[in-house]
Every structure is written in C-alpha cells, then in structure tokens.
Design brief:
- The structure is a single chain.
- The chain contains 15 helices and twelve strands.
- The protein has 372 residues and is α/β, with parallel strands linked by helices.
- Helix 3 packs parallel to helix 11 and helix 14 crosses helix 15.
- Helix content is 38%, strand content 15%.
- Bound molecules: pyridoxal-5'-phosphate (PLP).
- The site of pyridoxal-5'-phosphate (PLP) has 15 residues, from helix 4.
C-alpha cells in the first residue's frame, strides 16, 4: 500500500503493512521461512525478503515518505551504511554519540585508515564545514545521553562533497518527532529495538532513504552480510508500530512534567531535556522537532554514589539499560565501560507510559531515601 498523501502518521501506523486479499488475516503473520517454492521471484529469504519484513518496511518507509530496509538490529542498519565507505574515508561523528557507532568508526579507523573527526552536536558551522570534505556525516539527534539537538535543517541543506552520505540516527526522536529525509539527509536510521518495538522484547533496526540507488546498496549490504531480521522480531516490531503514536505521545507528556519537577528538586543539580527553556539547544529543538521526546538526563547533586543508590531504590522505574519501552527505565551512564567521560552522577531516564504521579512518587521516594 502506498501512503495516501493526506493520511496522517497516526492513521498510517495503524493502516499500513496489512494484507488486502479476501479472506486474508488482518495482520501479516510471522513467516518462519528460509526458502520458497520456485516459480516466484522470491526464492530465498536473505535475498528476497519475507512478507513479515516487508510489512515492517512498508510501515516505516511510508512514515518517512521513503523506502526502508529492515535489519537484525539497529547496529546492523548502522553497519550497512558504514559498509558503503571505502578505505581512507573521512567521517564526522558527534562528540556525544551512541557507543556502538563510535566503536564501529574506531574499527574502520584502525583497519581501513578512516579519518574520524568528532564535533559537538551544537556546532552547526562545524557540521556545515565537514559536509564539504567528509564521505560520511553521521548525526545523532537528540544525542545519547546528553540530549543535544542538532540543527538538521541547516546541516542537511549544506553543500556536500559529491557522494557524501548524510546519515541521521533518529532513534530518540522517531519519525514522529523528526523527519531527517525531509531536511535532505541521505538516510535515516532507527534502532527499532527502542520506540518502534516499544516493549523491550526484540532487537531490530531500520534504515530509510529516498535515494533509489542508496536503497539498493542497503539491500545488497543486508544480502551480503546477512544481518536479516528474525520472523518473530519483525512481527513484533510491526505490532509495536500500531501503538507507537499513542505510546510516544503519553511518554513525552510524562517526560515534560517530570523534567520540570526534577528541575525544581533541591537534590538535582542539572536536568537535560530539550523541552526545558534551560536546555542549551532548546531553541533549535523547538524548530526542528515536533515534540521533545521521552528521554531525560539529570545529574544528582550528591554524586555517583547517591545516583547509584537512587537506581537501587526505584521500584516502578526499572533499573535497566535501553530505552523507548512502555516501562520506564533508568541507569547511571558513567557506570558503563567507555562512558567514564560523562558526568558521574548523570542518570538517564527513559520515561514510559505509567501514570506520571506514580513515576514522580517513585523518583521522589528514591531520592529522599538517600538523604542522610
Ligand atoms: C540502541 C541504539 C542503537 C543500536 O541499536 P540496537 O538495536 O541495539 O543494535 C543505535 N543508536 C541509538 C541512538 C540507540 O539508542
């Protein structure tokens, strides 16, 4: 089904990727198949795909008015883009960036001679400059975990070196809050493990583009490297998309309220939420995002030990990594290996769809329990 131009994203998320033949089930079932009977262009799943992957690709491709390729994980989608680079490629990466992506770039630097420049997310002039000589400009916005928002509108419109790929990791914003392809990015990436799946029960990734040649390259990368999504995972990811707009709406309403309350809390030193006027990139966020998202990072005045104690004390909020699920999760990011550069007491909170007052009571009680 092609997306009718007037259909709103909330309706498309519900209507897309469904069978249309008489007597067919309303949902594309999980297809646990490696091969198909000869006589059809689809004969082997890794080359030709499966109906279940295609349903996910239809929903997410239409959401960004592009075409999607589904992968086994967000990192598999990211890797398919990095695989487009030759030796001695020049890359620009944000200073605040998903750890796996940084690792992938470091591997390419040591094995293939890639030159990797790191820029502050908010350094718009710097990003515009690197578009002139980079082969891959990698943006992540809002960034993980500092939630800095890049001026994608300006950066994606900048003149580029021929063949330069501008890629946006759109996992935190989702296509509901930000449409990088509309600004002119080559490709938009989602870890569907997060908001798309939305229930902490799958790994999947999606890359979406409006460039027909680039779409073929992504598909070829999936075929050759074999990072294909699982049947059950693709089915669950489609199931997740049906409620994405509702879940995300509630989660970001909750986040806006919690961010404001945390900012007024005496034991909280700093709150990073793009929706707060105190946030360094609030003005950019107002312009490029249609919502401020459901991720909050905040620093506790008491330091790392107090932050760890708060993580142990929360009950409704789960002390766990990852994000974007119906349940709220929280963790101290600097506790992760390789993340020691972050503020030691920074807690990253992925706000879920619980009642906001219950979330606040949980946080307040956990913080109060650490007072001596
Ligand atoms: C989780 C995440 C990824 C990686 O996705 P996986 O599905 O875990 O492979 C990439 N970028 C961001 C921003 C993420 O949060």
């Amino acid at each position: 089904m092609a997306k009718p131009p007037t259909l709103r994203p909330e309706s498309w998320l519900v209507a897309a990727g469904r069978p249309s033949a008489a007597g067919a089930p309303l949902n594309v079932p999980p297809t646990p198949a490696s091969n198909f009977l000869h006589g059809d262009p689809r004969d082997y799943a890794r080359d030709g795909g499966t109906p279940t992957w295609e349903a996910l690709e239809e929903v997410l491709g239409g959401l960004e008015d592009g075409r999607s390729v589904a992968f086994a994980s967000g990192m598999a989608a990211v890797a398919a883009i990095f695989q487009q680079l030759g030796s001695d490629a020049v890359l620009a990466l944000p200073e605040d960036c998903y750890q796996g992506v940084v690792g992938l770039a470091a591997t390419g630097a040591s094995q293939s001679g890639w030159a990797v420049e790191r820029l502050a997310v908010e350094d718009t002039a710097g990003w515009i400059r690197v578009c002139r000589d980079a082969d891959l400009v990698w943006l992540e916005s809002p960034s993980n975990p500092l939630l800095a928002v890049a001026d994608l509108e300006a950066i994606c419109a900048a003149p580029r070196k021929p063949g330069c790929i501008v890629a946006v990791d759109n996992t935190f914003a989702t296509p509901l809050n930000q449409k990088p392809l509309e600004f002119g990015a080559t490709v938009s990436v989602q870890s569907a493990t997060k908001f798309i799946g939305g229930h902490s029960d799958l790994l999947a990734g999606v890359a979406t583009t409006r460039d027909a040649a680039f779409y073929e390259k992504l598909k070829e990368a999936r075929t050759l490297h074999g990072a294909t999504p699982g049947a059950l995972e693709a089915f669950l990811a489609v199931r997740g998309t049906r409620t994405l707009a509702l879940r995300f709406d509630r989660a970001q309403q909750n986040a806006a309220i919690l961010a404001e309350r945390l900012e007024g809390h005496p034991d909280v030193a700093r709150v990073r939420y793009p929706g707060l006027p105190s946030h360094p990139t609030h003005e950019v966020a107002r312009r490029v995002l249609s919502g401020f998202g459901s991720m909050i990072s905040f620093d506790l005045a008491g330091g790392a030990e107090v932050a760890d104690a708060v993580c142990r004390q929360v009950r409704l909020i789960r002390h766990a990594t990852s994000l974007g699920a119906v349940e709220s999760t929280m963790e101290r990011r600097a506790a992760h290996a390789g993340q020691e550069h972050l503020p030691p007491s920074l807690l990253r909170l992925s706000v879920g769809i619980e009642h906001v007052d219950d979330l606040w009571s949980d946080l307040e009680a956990a913080i109060a329990s650490t007072r001596t």
